[in-house]
Amino acid sequence: MAKITKLEDIVSLCKRRGFIFQSSEIYGGLASCYDYGPLGVELKNSVRAAWWKDAVQMRDDVVGLDCSILMHPMVWKASGHADKFADLIAECKKCNTRTRVDHLTEKAEEAEEEHTKHISLDTAMATAQDLSNKVCPNCGSVGQFTEPMPFKLMFETQMGANIDDSMTMHLRPETAQGIFANFKNVLDTTRIKIPFGIAQIGKSFRNEVTTKAFIFRTREFEQAELEFFCKPGTDEKWYEYWKESRFNWYINLGIKKENLCLRNHDPDELAHYAKACVDVEYKFPFGSGDWQELEGIANRTDYDLRQHQRGIRTLNKWFESDRDLTKIELSKEAEDYQSGPLSYFDDEQKTRYIPYVIEPSAGIDRSTLAFLVDAYDEEEVRGETRNLLRFHPALAPVKVAVFPLVKRDGMPEIAQNIYNDLKKYFNCFYDEKGAVGRRYRRQDEAGTPFCITVDGQTLQDTTVTVRDRDSMDQVRVSTDQLLNHLREKLEV
Q1: For 371-387, what is each residue's pLDDT tens digit?
Q2: CATH code of the domain occupying 7-83+157-371
């Protein structure tokens, strides 16, 4: 198997075959924004569906939500984002390029990206590094930087038709807070009991200083997050459970185990809310070849529900103020948190407590990229290079392609009938243009697991050729057994 060492191979394939395009390309493109093409949207939909099936559909202890992107400003005050969600940046005096301070490298070091860590503005300023020996990644100047300054990561927008009643809102930087804000609603409207989870897939937005590597880090991205609520004292058990479960999800969908690892966060690397955190990392073919984060699994303790209880008590201050979040302090009034509105009453133990939370948080776009990279292969077949994507059948954008061998003798009509029958069950593709070998190659490159060809023998005994993408083996299958044969192979 040919080893992919350049992301350019994947980017070229994505553009050539309609997986991913540069956004607004006809106008020169918009940096760090991408559109998913016909094959890409099917792949991304399959990744979403696979995550949802594993996290929600196949479990009795997880329910789903779809929360609004725009939320009350106090959500972000209570969560800490309004005060802490920022990067420390410095501007090169030579070329005016702004770079995150923690991404700058020493003159003698090889440039490589460190792991992302968002900290409070006060902490960031207090720990600013000496930049005298740091290198600008754009022009190569050494030590030519302005003083580090905070850069807020949330996108702002305005809500309201009139100036008098408009207020500043934020596009959500994560989907998790919508789940915490709906914790009581879920408890009140379902019969679910702790331990249980609430899952959501949706768009998030971060005004990142540094974007990189195609769809790996963008300013608009899609998250798949699960908040699993459990009794304090059982959190470490559930933390270990979800580490293993999420790691195995990638392997079960075809990611090679040698390309995955778990990296525990060091104590000084943990987010302000986390008791523990581990990243599922994948060896992407960019940068210096180091492991890059695919997903994080964090023990958030009871931080979020406690904060939102404080936020509820602070709400009147927001109404009475000029609604500037930076001027509002969360309530420090003594409160029995165990009996607050976001606490949980255990009917069996007759106790009330605020649950701990274990959070697996995956990026749908990053996962899609990892599945693309890991599936990509090149091999020589009869003196020609065959490019193919060895997707797990559950992720393949097209499950089955149907061809007539030639456009005569009734073969197109039979092939069309088969195609029309199968597309009720799978995402299918019909093609009758060009030599059948070239059609196979096009489907290999799109990652289609099986191709069906109607040929002369079909006219005699109603069997068709079914070709396997990976092995290129061909078998004859009767048309009346075709659906069952494909369902077994595709595991659907």
Answers
A1: 999 999 999 888 888 99
A2: 3.30.930.10
